[in-house]
Give the backbone structure.
Amino acid sequence: MKKKLIELAKLIDAKVIGDQECEITGIATLSEAKSGDISFFHNPKYKHQLQTTQASAVILSAKIAEICPTNALVVENPYYAYAKLANEFAYKPVVQPGIHPTAIIGKNCQIAKSVSIAPYVVISDEVIIDENTSIGAGSVIGEGCKIGKDCQLAARVTLYHHVEIGDRVLIFSGAVLGSDGFGHANYEDKWYKVSQLGRVIIEDDVEIGANTTIDRGALDDTRVGRGVKLDNQIQIGHNVQIGAHTIMAGCSGIAGSTKIGSYCMIGGGSCINGHIEIVDRVMITGMGAVISSIKQPGIYSSGTGLLDNHEWKKSVIRFRQLDKMMRQLKKLTSLINKE
């Protein structure tokens, strides 16, 4: 791809400072960029990299433009502008409409003519797939599933029966939607499986990362709201409700029947207990352990920062002594108050 700087400026509504005719052929970080590349600056800790970058142009804000050593595209939000521009440079596989001869298609399916179905896909009975959607190689679509317009399912995605996918949904390889929730009843010291009768509903503009699993509901549906972004290797339990435009980082898990509000941010490795509620606009930092409902918006943390192993062992010992130390402190405080 080769574009002039003025062309890129129009794509992101930017002001050009410098040579408008400069040709851009790639996009890279400040430290790795070379002639022909465009980069971006939005984090002050990389200021030294901005001053030494070899990029032909940099996306940045007006307040930092004066120290830029090269051509600049000035915008209000550099990271958002970079995200839009990165889409122009992203690899876009050529998708041809049609059904590969190795694919297996069930009975009474409704598949739009513009849909692309790759080799060795298995589509069960009564499936509906809308316009301009592509199904990657080796994917399995269960009975009665509905998939909306402009969706992309990568290779080896699995949808169990009666999963519903909205429009413009992106699902990466290895994701499994609609497998049974973890429900078992105990009777006479034995566990008996509880059939999971609900569905999984994915609303519009959702992104689901590789090897993420979303369990079907026990009775009610498991629902992922509009615009939600899920990283790789996330576990969503049965009956979970995730509000619109919430984002979750990798290796996080949500236990069953929990409700997450809209516009939340959940850091990597976080564990969220079942049967609780989290309000809108909550940020949980990485390794957060949420054991009870969060009723107020804000930033919440519970992970323990990394320590030298020797210091960590001493801290553990002190932690175990806290109760005893507290009782001693109360006793001393009482004696002092009597004097």
